[in-house]
Amino acid sequence: MKSIKNQVRIDFEERKSKFIGYAKPIATKMEAEEFIKTIRELHPDATHNCTVYRVVDSGQEYFKADDDGEPSGTAGKPMGEILTYMDVHNVVVVATRYFGGIKLGAGGLVRNYAKTAKLAILEGEIIEFVERKECLLDFSYEKIGEVESLLIAGSDELLNKDFNERVTYRVKICDDTLIKIKEMKDILIIM
Question: What is the CATH number of the domain that holds 98?
Answer without folding.
Answer: 3.30.230.30
